[in-house]
Write a structure and sequence with these properties.
about 575 residues; mainly alpha; two-stranded antiparallel sheet; about 55% helix; about 0% strand; amino-acid transport; membrane; transport; transmembrane; AA-permease/SLC12A_dom
Length: about 575
């Protein structure tokens, strides 16, 4: 359920933002496209993680099948994605709270209390198993204990919240007996639209919508974070194979019900990047007209189901749903901190304590744990962006843009992680196919072409599905991000130029980091060599699988990034050496 808690946050927030400039059809198409990409990405990830339920799998897959230096970049990118997502969800929670009080008191209270509560939950409930060895790189943090129960019931509650929203939206549409004034408008039939302040053509607004729809799907891959705790492969198959389909189904059903009850021209919808002012016409943009300040603050979030309920004058119910969505944002922030801290913990654990570089020695301390096995420093480090929500309290130009920039970097970083997983699967698949005839006896489980049973629902469509995931991820990242610049409206294009640059800042920084590592380490990509090299890699991956067998009340553990023989540790010290990767 941690994946559900991580993914399902405040979906109506992004739905309303896309609806306001693209119409209902743009919302549906945007989420459908990104959902299909997420499914394609997870098909490859699920097959590999079911084969090897290891800790820190997203980094390890890249390290073994793509490039060691690229794996470091992916680790940093994934940590940043969730560290900034934690801050973004706290910001969203504060905006939701302003439904009851548009002053700064409620907002400030949320920004102060939410991080403290989330920190307390993560700090006191996620503990390592008995027999914790500080030299291990990633240990079984028993989310089955209190944290696990919090995530379990939290995930179920969030699914119930969205089911309740779905039922309420259908009741509004059908005109149930208790509805004061059922709406006769067919809002969902408005199809594709565009606001002249954002785009001058429907296709452009659709591409912008697709780019925005990425954010609600972040975390679909987070099911891998606790894969190594599965008692057996069968226990892991269900969540790994189904999570992307479940999320896509929940999203599409919920979105359709919301679009039935709110017009795309509703002034209470969230304003995309402050591109228009309260009361502006969506279809009439005078040439070269100056962009005025908003008549109402565009950071006041009015969520789509809340707007629908309030438009029908149903007392208190809008506030109840708003409170439920506030909890949803808080729960997602809690899960985001968990994923971020565990990623940072894995990075610190992969570094030797006796490194010559003081920076590397300091990074290694991120793997420190207290007597209960809680990675305190990793949790503190993952809260580094906790100050960002407070920028919303400052009425200064540029503070909101700083938040947008940092969040944009996080979104694009996760898309890069998706692309890296598709690339890792493609190289894994190609390497197996190259030595197909050797996959017998002890290696028969890796024979994708003759084994019975399926590790993913669409396994037969591989590797074409992985190619689609890779190309689609890169297209969204490199092409759709610039869609706002394609408008012929000079004012719209000028304002969205900064937004487009924000989108490319994340990939640019990661590229600089990757090039820097390559210059320093002087290593090539992983060479997909002969059968002996493939066999060694498969054995190494098997050695990383942490046994989850209880013997005499003691859980036996092995490290995730270091073979128990100590001969194949993933250490940044390795990256200091000039050796070339041979596997």
């Amino acid at each position: 359920m941690i994946a559900i808690s991580t993914i399902i946050g405040v979906l109506p927030n992004r739905v309303g933002e896309i609806l306001a400039f693209g119409g209902p059809a743009t919302v549906l198409l945007s989420f459908a496209v990104v959902g299909v990409v997420a499914v394609a990405v997870m098909e490859g990830i699920s097959e590999m993680v079911i084969t090897w339920p290891i800790p820190n799998p997203l980094v390890e897959f890249v390290r073994r099948f793509v490039d060691r230096d690229f794996a470091v970049v992916i680790c940093v990118a994934y940590w940043y994605t969730w560290a900034i997502t934690f801050a973004a969800l706290i910001s969203t929670a504060g905006a939701i709270a302003k439904y009851w009080n548009e002053g700064k008191a409620a907002e400030t209270l949320v920004y102060a209390l939410c991080p403290l509560l989330v920190f307390f939950i993560n700090f006191n409930t996620v503990k390592a198993s008995d027999g914790f060895n500080i030299n291990c790189s990633f240990h079984k943090l028993t989310s089955r204990q209190l944290f696990g129960y919090i995530e379990l019931f939290g995930g179920i509650l969030k699914l119930l919240i969205y089911f309740m929203i779905f039922v309420l939206m259908l009741c509004l549409r059908s005109g149930a007996g208790w509805i004061p004034k059922p709406d006769s408008m067919e809002y969902i039939t408005n199809g594709f639209q565009y606001r002249c302040q954002v785009a001058d053509r429907k296709p452009i607004s659709t591409l912008i919508g697709i780019n925005l729809a990425i954010y609600p799907f972040l975390g679909v891959e987070s099911v891998t974070m606790t894969a190594f705790e599965a008692k057996n492969t069968a226990e892991l198959k269900m969540p790994a194979r189904n999570i992307s389909f479940i999320v896509l189904s929940v999203y599409m059903v919920s979105i359709v019900s919301m679009l039935l009850n709110v017009s795309w021209t509703d002034p209470l919808l969230m304003i995309y990047y402050g591109q228009w002012t309260f009361g502006d016409s969506p279809t009439h943009c005078p040439a070269n007209s100056p962009r005025a300040e908003n008549g109402m603050r565009d950071d006041v979030t009015h969520l789509v189901p809340v707007i629908a309920l309030d438009r029908h004058d149903i007392p208190y119910l809008g506030g109840v749903i708003n409170a439920c969505l506030l909890y949803s944002a808080f729960s997602a922030a809690n899960s985001a901190l968990f994923v971020a801290s565990r990623t940072l913990y894995g990075l610190g654990s992969s570094i030797q304590r006796d490194e010559k570089s003081p920076i590397l020695r300091w990074l290694s301390t991120l793997a420190n744990v207290d007597s209960n096995g809680v990675p305190q420093r990793a949790i503190f480090g993952s809260m580094i962006f906790g100050w960002i929500p407070f920028l919303s309290l400052v009425d200064e130009k540029g503070t909101d843009k700083m938040q947008d920039i940092l969040q944009s970097i996080g979104t694009t970083s996760c898309i890069i992680v998706w692309a890296s997983q598709a690339l890792a699967f493609l190289r894994y698949h190609w390497w197996l196919r190259k030595h197909h005839t050797y996959l017998k006896n002890d290696y028969i489980q890796f024979d994708r072409w003759s084994r019975t049973g399926h590790m993913s629902w669409l396994e037969a469509a591989q590797p074409w599905l992985a190619w689609f995931a890779l190309v689609a991820s890169l297209t969204i990242l490199l092409v759709f991000a610039s869609a706002g610049l394609w408008s012929s409206n000079h004012e719209a294009r000028k304002q969205l130029t900064v937004k487009a640059l924000d989108q490319y800042l994340g990939p640019g920084l990661l590229l600089v980091m990757f090039i820097g590592l390559k210059i320093v380490k002087r290593r090539w990509w992983v060479r997909l060599g002969d059968w002996n090299q493939l066999r060694d890699t498969l054995r190494d991956m098997d050695d990383l699988v942490v046994p989850n067998v209880e013997e005499e009340g003691v859980i036996r553990q092995r490290t995730s990034l270091e073979r128990h023989s100590g001969s194949d540790a993933m250490r940044l010290s390795d990256m200091e050496s000039g050796e070339h990767t041979s596997r």
